[in-house]
Amino acid sequence: MSEIETRLESLGITLPEAPKPLGNFAPYLIDGEFLYISGQISVDLGGNIHRGKLGETVSLEQGQVAAKWCAVGLLARAKAALGTLDRVEKLIKLGAFVNAIPDFIDHPKVVNGASDFFVEVLGPEKANHVRFAVGSSSLPAGAAVEIEAVFRIQV
Amino acid sequence: MSEIETRLESLGITLPEAPKPLGNFAPYLIDGEFLYISGQISVDLGGNIHRGKLGETVSLEQGQVAAKWCAVGLLARAKAALGTLDRVEKLIKLGAFVNAIPDFIDHPKVVNGASDFFVEVLGPEKANHVRFAVGSSSLPAGAAVEIEAVFRIQV
Amino acid sequence: MSEIETRLESLGITLPEAPKPLGNFAPYLIDGEFLYISGQISVDLGGNIHRGKLGETVSLEQGQVAAKWCAVGLLARAKAALGTLDRVEKLIKLGAFVNAIPDFIDHPKVVNGASDFFVEVLGPEKANHVRFAVGSSSLPAGAAVEIEAVFRIQV
User: Fold this and answer.
1) Domain A3-153 has CATH 2.60.40.420
2) What ipTM was estimated for this complex?
């Protein structure tokens, strides 16, 4: 088992099958040294979509959990793409959309649920990424969070 | 005529002049093996902007048509950048923003209007792309959809 | 002093310390010939966040100023990453999110506040970039604008 998957196991997480896209596109794409992963909504290991809006029906803590499930789904897709997560050299970027009401202002804290998870699993060096975190008035399937990712990989 | 333009013709589409940007930026940019195209709003062959919000004044079917017009505009800009669409090797990524009310949940179906079009025109292999599809509370000129794209190209 | 910083000085702008990220991620990241900069909210030289929504509490002119402060923050981070802005070869892309009410339609004019600034400081050739400009129903800390950037750099 890869080092990264050992860390996942110690966190109680067995990666699910890579979530299928909700449309006519690829869940992931390898181009040269980069792995691009499509926007991943917040779906937990039981297949339940974490729905709702921050500032309304979803608390900050619930939003952070939703963001973590996006990160788990992104890793599940990365494993499906690469065979093993040991081929991940670096998380380059996250693009994060938080389903929120107009008054919400804590998007960074929500998305830390994903960023912190990547640091924990990949280690601080490989996980040191740029990101944007913004509000969306609505997201696919009513999900609370959607995150896309770009990784540098071993070819 | 290129193979791709023959397919476009069979769909009844003659690419328009590349839509001009609504600001002080480039409609497209070639950097090495990549062609980046700026966010393209939903404008049809007659120059009409498809406006409105999904879940309110725009039906799912109308939204899919709007997304298709974004894709047509992206191809028009690609042709302007490359001279011929035969230089397109691969659609890498779409970033799609859907003008929608807070309760809307079918962004993926809307954006399939663009993804399906690319599959039809470029073929399933060249068109196999990653994407995100999210809701925006508002878009430039009140457009229903805005989509940016990255292509891999022959240099 | 670099040519670019001389131009900044003539505009009355001394780059501030690079704004720190509002979460567990990197303010910038160099990968090969590219410099990626995390989403930067509108913060002026005095450290004040320019808050509010376009179409409501923020005028078009105020929004353009807010977008300019995002650009200044992006340059401050670029300088922190590169040592000197002379290593900037090209602004490749801006991804711009405008905090706006559902009826707002002038996102491109707002984001020109950033694009025009880059043209002024980097010159028209280096600053010729692609971008998207969309509406967000909410942004971190209530900021009026958030912009991410990708630059090509001298390695």
Assistant:
1) no
2) 0.96
